[in-house]
Amino acid sequence: MPVGMITLIVLAVLIYFGVxxxxxxxxxxxxxxxxxxxxxxxFGSYLPDIPLTSTLAIxxxxxxxxxxxxxxxxxxxxxxxxxxxxxLASLIATAAIYGAMxxxxxEPTHTMFLDPMILFALLxxxxxxxxxxxxxxxxxxxxxxxxxxxxITHIQAGLVGARTRTVxxxxxxxxxxxxxxxxxxxxxxxxxESREWLAGGSEKEKxxxxxxxDGQAGVPGPVVLETAKELVPPWEKTNPKLEDKRQxxxxxxxxxxxxx
Length: 260
Hints:
Blueprint: H1 3-16, H2 21-26, H3 31-44, E1 50-51, E2 56-58, H4 60-75, H5 80-103, H6 116-132, H7 135-159, E3 166-168, H8 172-198, H9 203-217, H10 222-230, H11 240-259
Parallel strand pairs: 2-3
Antiparallel strand pairs: 1-2
Helix pairs in contact: 1-3, 1-8, 3-4, 4-7, 4-8, 5-6, 5-7, 6-7, 6-8, 7-8
């Protein structure tokens, strides 16, 4: 079974048992939506490629689904700045991967210790994290970078007159797209969590702690309550026995005045 398929199965198991819940929350993805995307990538890779031209086709699992997921994450981004950063990071990752493909061979050789596609996935993940920073931007840049590189390679081949057939997101690119996305998000998670821990927590957690602290500051504590209770004048307290005694004294005075 290809590396990409195995990775998707492992990722689906981790999502099902809630191991990566925090990462999904940061990416604005629910467990259900994440599992749906994984299932679409897994089964979509076995479906027939969709022809775009006579020499160009796109794979559903390795091309269409990653593009749809990336667009979805861009739309769900919190700010316009993050959207712009994700797009810019995708272009930077595309340029880096395209340059690496010009240097490294597309097929493994006896002098290479790793498959070139795995090296491209590592490069895409690292560059995507450095350019995107956030988990969403890093994932978008990694997956979009590989898909866009596939498209540019085909366009270049057509310009020089080559008649090779290209499948966007097919063959080894499918594995590279999955691995690059996981590597980018993994780096963002590890580095981001480390920085937040050193800084005393994320900005959101700091705001929540400050709000809780401000709320507690407005509630009087036990000492204040006891002090306030002690300051109540004794004549304002209601005592039934004292009240009866006062009423009796008033009646006695009234009777004495009547005798006089």
